[in-house]
Amino acid sequence: MSLTMPRRSRARTAALLALVLLAAPACADDEGGAGPGGSVKIGLLASLSGTYQAVGKDIRDGFQLYLSTHDGKLGGRTVDLVVADEGNGAATAVPAATKLLKQDRVVALTGVVGGGSVAAVYPLLNETKVPFVGSNGRPELKDVSRVWHTSYLSDEPGEAIAQHVRGDVKGSVYAIGPDYQGGWDELRGFTEAFVKAGGRLANPDGKATFTPFPTTTNFTPYFARIKASGADAVYTFYAGSAAVDFVKQYAQSEVKDLPLYAAGFLTEGGVLNAQGEAARDIYSVLNYSPDLDNAENREFVAAWKAEHDGSPTTYAMASYDAAAVLDRAIAAAGDEPTPEHVNAAIGQLGQIASPRGTWQFSPTTHAPVQKWYLRQVRQDGRALSNTVVGDLATVGG
Amino acid sequence: MAAGIRFDPYVVPALDGVAYGLLVFVAAAGLVLCFGVAGILNLAHGTLYAIGGYTAAALLDGGWPSLALALAVGVVAATASGALVAGLLTRVAARNHLTQALLTFGVALAGGSLLVGAFGPDDPPVRVPAALDGSVVVAGHRYAAYRLVFIVVAALLAGLLHLVVRRTRAGMLVRAAVDDAEMVAVLGVSPARIRVGVLAAAGALAGAAGVLGAPIIGPGPDTADAVLLLSLVVVVLGGLGSMTGTLLAALAVGQIQTLGVALAPSAAPFLLFAAMAVVLAVRARGLATARRTT
After folding, report:
1. Residues A212 and A258 in one domain
2. Which helix (H) or strand (E) holds A258?
3. Does B225 reach chain A within 8 Å, measured CB to CB?
4. pLDDT at B245
């Protein structure tokens, strides 16, 4: 279009543009950011009570950290952040989301710990046409045109580490995990990629073993079966209190000398403190580690440690990134950051600089195409922490 | 050799079942005392265990003195909480079990929230004495040293409990109250006092189980529910007022949860309650109902 434009007209457009750009900040100053054009309402839904409250609070704090380090603004607009409690799952998440979407009329929704909660809130998102930038759970969804995730898909951690385990372990690997959708996805990601890479599962029936969830608190009988299978290593996924039980009992079991590989949630966040020495040397795969060496991460970790005890988790990082995504999308959405415009802008973002390293949304799944890291639990000063020991595959899309 | 191959993988689960069963026994014994003697269905019993567990997590530092301290503090705290529940129940003690259940359930919910508020939503780490923080080889298998010692300690506790109930005046009064509360009242012993005493003793048992069992069933937001559920199963299986029945039921629950899972992993989610259903169907009044208060 500019090619066909007469020279004089172009000059006039440029002058006009300069005038608008100069006037805009002055205008915003006059309104004090309180006018209809100056602020934007964002809804954050996360488990602030119940089983997953540790994850939910990390998600809330990660988002708030981004706001507090960016003058409380996203895309140049003052943010009115409305926080609601997701509770234990769908039953509590739906009323909370209904309030955010229909009463508060937020421009975008973020957070949500449980995949089940996302699935339950999904029809509301379609009804209100509000974009959702999720920072954790991601269920199977038919149409993701308004759904984005800054986290990962459940089968990706296993897929990313399978090749490494295949090369590292001389012999067979026993796969074990919790008996629910998340556990099935995590283990399927590993076993499919591992077998495809020529690996051999030690499980007697050639399929991953699933333990009743959340009722299994004593893993001793399963360790006896692993021992009997003659496995040379173990791959697992557990989170929360099951992760604590599994790791502590593993360290004192018959199979304690077998190398343990896991999806990173086994040793992520608060559970690592509870596991203590028992977690030493465990290998895990995750899209983030607080000791990653890049400028964004140094800034993020320093800001986090100024406000919280301990290092940030991948949950906090994903929520921090959700804020970064909204920051750029709202800025790109122009004068009217309507839900429709913001959603369209998210699709045009391209590469996103993040504490985890640069990533981008997959055009098909709307989840990150990102690099995964191999971490090992090692001594870091006084405490044990997940230390990056290598890069694994880039997975996504 | 063939037999060796067949039995070998089940040695550790069987041993672990004993440790688990004895822990469940110490935890459930208090509930049996409450229900059998005072006729009180104390749904806050799991919370008393959790108090012991959180005390252990807060005080244990890897040394022996801290274990003694945690045991003392945990038992005192849980005993006091048990007495508190008895106090709250004074007004509704004469009412039916539903009222008691509602009141104690409310106490359990409030207590659980208070514990999470005080200790945080995460499962806190529990540090056992350094000397026991490892594993030993038993019959060619590695097994956690703490659990092995726990089996001995819990067996001693069970023996002690048996002696108290059988041989002491307090135990006799308790057994008498099961058989005929009115007659005990006629003898000049206030049933209310027995009720407070029994609930406090039940609290002490739950507290001791919570502290000593913290490395096995650790403290956390779900602990109270898990322990209450296991204890109720033991009450149903073992019958009321019988310590022997309780012990047998607890050991059975332990084996079902470990050996049962090792033998039939696909049935693991249903084993415990399937066993309960079978026992109820076969003997409607529990495993050991023939002789109450034996």
Report:
1. yes
2. none
3. no
4. 87
Residue from A52, A218, A222 whose CB has the most chain B CBs within 10 Å, to mutate = A218
Q: SS3 string of B81-133?
A: HHHHHHHHHHHHCCCCHHHHHHHHHHHHHHHHHHHHHHHCCCCCCCCCCHHHC
A319 burial via Cβ count (<10 Å: 0-12, 13-18, 19+): buried
Pairwise CA distance, residues A219 & A256, whole Å: 13
What does the alpha-carbon distance between residue B165 and residue B294 come to, in Å, rounded to a whole number? 9
Please check whether residue A20 lies inside any domain of the structure: no
pLDDT band per the 50, 70, 90 thresholds, residue A334: confident
Amino acid identity for residue A225 in this structure: R
Q: pLDDT, tens digit, for every residue of A257-267?
A: 999 999 999 99
The topology under which CATH files domain B10-119+128-282 is ABC transporter involved in vitamin B12 uptake, BtuC (1.10.3470)
Instruction: Select the residue from B142, B148, B151 to test the A interface by mutation, using most A Cβ atoms within 10 A.
Output: B142
Q: Note whether B13 contacts A221, CB cutoff 8 Å.
A: yes
Question: Among A83-97, A205-219, B257-271, which stretch is predicted with the lowest mean pLDDT?
Answer: B257-271
For residue B265, is the peptide bond before it cis, meaning its omega torsion is within 30 degrees of 0? no
Domain range for A230 is: 156-286+374-395
Does residue A197 sit in helix, strand or coil? Answer: coil
DSSP letters spanning A109-175: EEE---HHHHHHHHHHHHHHT--EEESS-----S--TTEEESS--TTHHHHHHHHHHHHH-SS-EEE
Tokens of A63: 């988002």
Residue count of chain B: 294
Q: At a CB cut-off of 8 Å and minimum separation 6, what does A337 contact?
A: A40, A75, A77, A107, A330
Does residue A224 sit in the same domain as residue A329? Answer: no
More confident residue, B266 or A292: A292
Q: Is B135:B144 a contact under the CB 8 Å cutoff?
A: yes
Residue B290 has pLDDT above 70, yes or no: no
Contact A274 B9 (CB under 8 A): no
- Strand, coil or helix: A263: strand
Instruction: Note the pLDDT of residue B6.
Output: 61
Structure tokens at A66: 């981004």
In this structure, what token pair is assigned to residue A43?
Answer: 């809804």
**How far, in Å, CA of B119 to CA of A205, rounded?**
43
Which residues contact residue B211 at a Cβ distance below 8 angstroms, ignoring those fewer than 6 apart? B52, B53, B55, B56, B67, B70, B71, B74, B75
ipTM over 0.85: no
Whole-number Å distance between alpha carbons of B55 and B75? 9
Nearest C-alpha neighbor of B20 from the set A218, A281, A347: A218
CA torsion B113-B115-B117-B121 (nearest 10°) is -90
CATH number at residue A196: 3.40.50.2300
The alpha carbon of B126 is separated from its chain's Cα centroid by a whole number of angstroms, namely 19
Cα–Cα distances in angstroms (integers) from residue A283 to residues A175, A204, A265, A268, in the given order: 14, 24, 11, 12
User: Which three-class secondary structure state does DSSP give residue A389?
Assistant: strand
In a shared domain, residues A219 and A269? yes
Q: B218 CA to chain A: closest CA distance, Å?
A: 8
Is the Cβ pair B268, A216 closer than 8 Å? yes
